[in-house]
Structures are given as structure tokens and as C-alpha cells.
């Protein structure tokens, strides 16, 4: 009666209501029922033939300890790293493995180019037996009989430098020039090395200090005289001497007497400063450095002798007209500071900071001309040098009071440099008239530009951004801008659009008041007056005095390129020493080689780490 179950099992028939449902179902369309049964059988058969449906795959995870991540994500990250290494890392490794030349320092700026030339001027000014590598082909041996009348000087006074366009050796400005060069090397030795002039600058200093050691008995501890000059020149004279004759140094045939002085607090102080500063420059040569510092101590002692404190130029007409010294208290302060840095002997710093010294020197009197650094006024340089001690070491009591005074005076001096405060006049072209429009203005410009640049570097070395000039805050960049403006004027940024450094730029002086540059090097030895033809000719100098900075233009920016205008067209040792110092201070060349602004430690290598209290001055001490 019931259809069979093809897949096993039984169909159970429920009673009651189930029967009513069954009887209703019996009335359905049998065709539809047949199709439904076949469909159900097909699904059943398929599940039997194909097996159970496939189970859904589960994601696999990796436990990294601090986090659990999908394995797929981990593999994806790994292959990204591999791809990045191949596409980025591998080319970098290969590129770095290929040898490359190290990048050189930046190209030299105009200040470095001028520096190279300015140093060569000293080679052209050398007296004595010249080295083969002197580098000035038109110069030769000269002055080999100098000092022959100084019987107490073994070998005479051969060597040193001629002062300017004549052939006199003035020891006062020569010593100052060596001090300036040494100071610049001490502060900027790294820059000198970076631009390839370190050895050259040291050789020039040694040429000068070797000679200065001959000007007194440097092997003794006590001396009673010092030689101040070789060669003389009478004003409007009619006898052969260093001004009456116009000769190359190699052709000199006239008398060149020496001048010795038994009282020279100024000259002795300046020579002591030069030797002391150079002893720091040559610390790598212990024997020579010791010789210099011992000589400096001897001549400093001579300069301080009681009863011998009249200026070296007093009643000396052959000196007074050219390099008259107006005071010696500034040299006392200047040389004492250098002696302290060179030796570390606290008696020198005690003397330099004794309140009576700045009082006698009128260092704090706010006198305008005393703020101008020059061969005759060392006060601004001495005050900056002593400010350095306070800024970098700050020794405290009992030196602090005077050091604060020197520091304040230095800041005030710097304020006076700026045109806005109208302390000094400036030409319309921008040149500072530190000597009030007199001859040789540029030597004052460069010396004070050096101090401005150096003070800016001192402040930056101790992280001080500037200082106040009254209510006006001035920055270190303001100081450098002043120094740059003055150097730019000298190098061609002036109304005449000419350089006042020979050989720099396209337009520069061609008719120097200089015997060696104006007289041909042609094998002819011209007589005393036979050289006049070369003095008076309108032709340009046959010998290029490379690097010579001339005196400079007048207060109206006017300049006459003539040998007769010696106030404008004559170069000097002092002028070029200041130029070299200012150029190396302001140049940016060498900074790519890791050059720092100033070498803070070189100056202090002899300074004791502790500053004991200064002993009271002896009863005989009279400043």
C-alpha cells in the first residue's frame, strides 16, 4: 500500500491530525508530487555521490609574543621588505661601495684671494740675505752691512723688514706689525691652514722676530739699551740718505747709521709684546718659543726700569718726525697682557689689572682718539686682549674689577665704529676717517676692522649675540658688516671703483711711492740721484709690488696715483699687517673644512688653571 523507501529506514504514519493531513494530501496533483520527489532524490543522490560539502578554511595566525598576526600578513610584510631592499637599499650599497673623491673646501672668497696677495708684500719688504724661495724675482740680498757701526751686536743688524717705500728699518712699527701677525695666527690658525698660508705666515713672523732678538742682548737678563732704527732721513736734506736717494735696496751705497736708545718704555714694551705673542705661535718649537719668551722678559724688564721712562722718540729728530710715540702706558698694558698669555706668570696680569695702570693710561677717560687702534695707540687692542681673559676664563677676584672696566671700554669702542652714532666721520663712499682725514687712512681702517671682527667672534664663542650701545642693541653681525664694508671699500667697492691693494682686481695703483717697485730690475746699478728718473717717470711701475695696500684716498674719496703723493700711494708694514689680520678674520674660506671662528685654547696653554690672589705690589712699585 505504501511506496517503498529506496534509501532505507521507514516512513512512520502519525495518527489523529496527521491522518487528516494525509487524506488532504492525497487530493494533490500526483504529477506535481512526482516531480517534487524526483528533485529531492536528485539532491540526496548528489550528496551521497559527492560526499559532504567542503568545510570553510580557517585563517592561520602567528604569535609574535606581544601581538598575534595573520600568517598571510606576515608574509606580505616580509616580501615588501625584500622588495624595498632590492629596489632601494641595494643601489645605495653599490653606490657607496664605489670610491668617490672627498668634496673639497668651498672656493675662496675675495677676502682670501686678497689675503694671499697681502702676505706676499712682506716677502718684498725683506732685508738681508733672502731665501731662495722668497718668491719675488726682482728682489735680492740687501742691507748686508746694516749695524756694522753697532760693535756690541754680533753679526750686525742684518735682516728684518724695510718699513715702507724707503729703505729705513723702524723697529717700533716693525715690532707692532709682528705682534699683529702673531695675534691673527693665534686666533685663526685653522683658517690659515685651510687656505694654505699657515707656514707662510709663520715664516714671515720668524723673519721679523729673529731680527728683533738682535736689537738688544736677548741672552742677558738685564740690558741698558736697545737699537731703535737702522737708516736715517733728514727732512729736506741734501746729503745721501734713505730719503734723499732713490735706490733699490740692493743698490744702496750711502751711510745707514744705527740709532740706540737707553730709555724706551714704549719701544721696549712693543718688542716684548711681539716676542711674547710669537712665542705662542711657535709653541710647537719648544726651544725657539723659550728663546722668544726669555727675550721678551728681558726687554719688558728694560721697558719698566725706573729712571728710564721717557719715550724712545723724545729728542730723536730722525725718529720723531716719522714714528713719534705719544705715550708708553698703552704699551705697558699691551705688553703685560701678552707676557701673561705667553708665560702664565701672574705678576704680569697683576700689573695689567692694577687700577693705577688704566688710570695713567687714561683708558677709561672716554677720549675719542684713544678708541682708535694703531701703532701709536695700543689701548683698544690691550683692552680687547684683556676682555678675552674675562670672557673665556673669568678669573674673578682680584682681577675682576679692572677686567670689567676693560670689557666695558671695549664695548664702547665698538659702538664708536658705527656711522649711526656719529663718533667718527665717514667719506661719502663709506670709508671711516679714524685719523680725521690725514694721510695713510687705510692702515687705521684695517686695524680697527680686525678688532671688530675679532670681538664678534669672541662674543659668538661664548654664545653672546651682541651688546648695547645705549638703548640700541647691536649684534655680532652688525660688527662684521662694519668690517666687511671697510674691506669691501679697500677692495674696490668705492666711488673710484678701484682696488687699493696692488694686484687685486683689474684696477689698482700703478705708480707707488716705493723705490724697489719703481726702479727696473735690469742689471743696472743706479746712483743715489740716478734713480730720480724712475721716481719722476709717468710710466707704471716695472715691478709689481703684489699685495701692497697703499695709504688710501682723502676725505673726499679722491685718490691720485702718483709717486709724489706718498700719503696716499705709499704702502707700509703696519698697513699690510692690519690688512692681513682683518682679511683672515672676516673670510669664510676654510669653514667647509671644519674651521672654528677663533681658537679659544691656544692663548691659554701657559695660563695656570687656578688664579691665586695677586700679591700686594712692592713699596718701590710706581706705575
From TrEMBL:
EC category name: hydrolase
Q: Which residues cross the membrane?
A: 73-94
Q: Which GO terms describe its biological process?
A: cellulose catabolic process
Signal peptide extent: none
For this protein, the record's SUPFAM superfamilies field holds: Six-hairpin glycosidases (SSF48208)
UniProtKB keywords: Carbohydrate metabolism, Cellulose degradation, Glycosidase, Hydrolase, Membrane, Polysaccharide degradation, Transmembrane, Transmembrane helix
Give EC number(s), comma-separated: 3.2.1.4
**UniProt key word Transmembrane:** yes
Q: Does the keyword Transmembrane apply?
A: yes
Q: Which reaction(s) does its UniProt entry say it catalyses?
A: Endohydrolysis of (1->4)-beta-D-glucosidic linkages in cellulose, lichenin and cereal beta-D-glucans
The UniProt entry, under InterPro entries, shows: 6-hairpin_glycosidase_sf, 6hp_glycosidase-like_sf, Glyco_hydro_9, Glyco_hydro_9_Asp/Glu_AS, Glyco_hydro_9_His_AS
Q: Where would I find the Glycoside hydrolase family domain in this sequence?
A: 111-583
Task: Give the record's family classification.
Answer: Belongs to the glycosyl hydrolase 9 (cellulase E) family.
Q: Which PANTHER family match?
A: ENDO-1,4-BETA-GLUCANASE (PTHR22298)
Question: What protein name does the entry list?
Answer: Endoglucanase
Organism annotation: Urochloa decumbens
Amino acid at each position: 500500500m505504501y511506496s517503498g523507501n529506496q534509501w532505507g529506514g521507514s516512513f512512520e504514519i502519525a495518527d489523529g491530525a496527521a491522518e487528516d493531513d494525509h487524506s488532504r494530501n492525497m487530493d494533490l496533483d500526483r504529477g506535481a508530487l512526482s516531480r517534487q520527489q524526483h528533485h529531492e532524490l536528485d539532491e540526496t543522490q548528489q550528496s551521497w555521490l559527492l560526499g559532504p560539502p567542503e568545510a570553510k578554511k580557517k585563517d592561520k595566525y602567528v604569535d609574535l609574543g606581544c601581538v598575534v598576526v595573520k600568517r598571510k600578513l606576515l608574509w606580505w610584510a616580509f616580501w615588501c621588505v625584500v622588495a624595498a631592499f632590492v629596489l632601494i637599499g641595494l643601489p645605495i650599497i653599490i653606490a657607496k661601495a664605489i670610491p668617490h673623491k672627498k668634496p673639497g673646501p668651498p672656493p675662496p672668497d675675495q677676502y682670501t684671494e686678497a689675503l694671499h696677495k697681502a702676505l706676499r708684500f712682506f716677502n718684498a719688504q725683506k732685508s738681508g740675505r733672502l731665501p731662495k724661495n722668497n718668491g719675488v724675482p726682482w728682489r735680492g740680498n740687501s742691507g748686508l752691512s746694516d749695524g756694522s757701526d753697532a760693535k756690541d751686536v754680533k753679526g750686525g743688524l742684518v735682516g728684518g723688514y724695510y718699513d715702507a717705500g724707503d729703505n729705513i728699518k723702524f723697529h717700533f712699527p716693525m715690532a707692532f706689525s709682528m705682534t699683529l701677525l702673531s695675534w691673527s695666527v693665534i686666533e685663526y690658525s685653522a683658517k690659515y691652514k685651510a687656505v694654505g698660508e699657515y707656514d707662510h705666515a709663520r715664516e714671515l713672523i720668524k723673519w721679523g722676530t729673529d731680527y728683533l732678538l738682535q736689537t738688544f742682548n736677548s741672552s742677558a737678563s738685564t740690558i741698558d739699551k736697545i737699537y731703535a732704527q737702522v737708516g736715517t732721513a733728514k727732512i729736506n736734506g741734501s746729503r745721501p740718505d734713505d730719503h734723499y736717494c732713490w735706490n733699490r735696496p740692493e743698490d744702496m751705497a750711502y751711510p745707514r747709521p744705527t740709532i740706540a736708545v737707553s730709555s724706551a718704555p714704549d719701544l721696549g714694551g712693543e718688542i716684548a709684546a711681539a716676542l711674547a705673542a710669537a712665542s705662542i705661535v711657535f709653541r710647537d718649537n719648544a726651544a725657539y718659543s723659550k728663546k722668544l719668551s726669555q727675550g721678551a722678559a728681558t726687554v719688558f724688564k728694560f721697558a719698566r726700569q725706573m729712571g728710564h721712562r721717557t719715550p724712545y722718540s723724545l729728542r730723536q729728530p730722525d725718529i720723531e718726525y716719522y714714528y713719534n710715540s705719544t705715550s708708553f702706558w698703552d704699551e705697558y698694558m699691551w705688553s703685560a697682557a701678552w707676557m701673561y698669555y705667553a708665560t702664565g706668570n701672574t705678576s704680569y696680569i697683576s700689573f695689567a689689572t692694577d687700577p693705577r695702570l688704566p688710570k695713567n693710561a687714561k683708558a677709561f677717560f672716554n677720549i675719542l682718539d684713544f678708541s682708535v687702534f694703531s701703532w701709536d695707540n695700543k689701548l683698544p687692542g690691550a683692552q680687547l686682549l684683556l676682555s678675552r681673559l674675562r670672557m673665556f676664563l673669568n678669573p674673578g677676584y682680584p682681577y675682576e674689577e679692572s677686567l670689567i672696566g676693560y670689557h666695558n671700554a671695549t664695548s664702547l669702542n665698538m659702538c664708536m665704529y658705527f656711522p649711526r652714532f656719529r663718533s667718527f666721520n665717514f667719506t661719502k663712499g663709506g670709508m671711516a676717517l679714524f685719523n680725521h682725514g690725514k694721510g695713510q687712512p687705510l692702515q687705521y681702517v684695517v686695524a680697527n676692522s680686525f678688532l671688530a671682527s675679532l670681538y664678534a667672534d669672541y662674543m659668538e664663542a661664548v654664545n653672546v649675540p651682541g651688546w648695547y650701545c645705549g638703548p640700541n642693541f647691536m649684534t655680532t653681525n652688525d660688527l662684521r658688516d662694519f668690517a666687511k664694508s671697510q674691506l669691501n671699500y679697500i677692495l674696490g667697492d668705492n666711488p673710484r671703483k678701484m682696488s687699493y691693494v696692488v694686484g687685486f682686481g683689474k684696477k689698482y695703483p700703478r705708480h707707488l711711492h716705493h723705490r724697489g717697485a719703481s726702479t727696473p730690475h735690469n742689471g743696472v746699478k743706479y746712483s743715489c740721484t740716478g734713480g730720480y728718473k724712475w721716481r719722476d717717470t709717468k710710466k707704471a711701475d716695472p715691478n709689481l709690488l703684489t699685495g701692497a695696500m697703499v695709504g688710501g684716498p682723502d676725505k673726499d674719496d679722491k685718490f691720485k696715483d702718483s709717486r709724489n703723493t706718498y700719503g696716499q700711494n705709499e704702502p707700509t708694514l703696519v698697513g699690510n699687517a692690519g690688512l692681513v689680520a682683518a682679511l683672515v678674520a672676516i673670510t669664510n674660506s676654510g669653514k667647509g673644512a671644519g674651521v672654528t671662528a677663533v681658537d679659544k685654547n691656544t692663548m691659554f696653554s701657559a695660563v695656570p688653571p687656578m688664579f691665586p690672589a695677586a700679591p700686594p705690589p712692592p713699596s718701590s712699585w710706581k706705575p
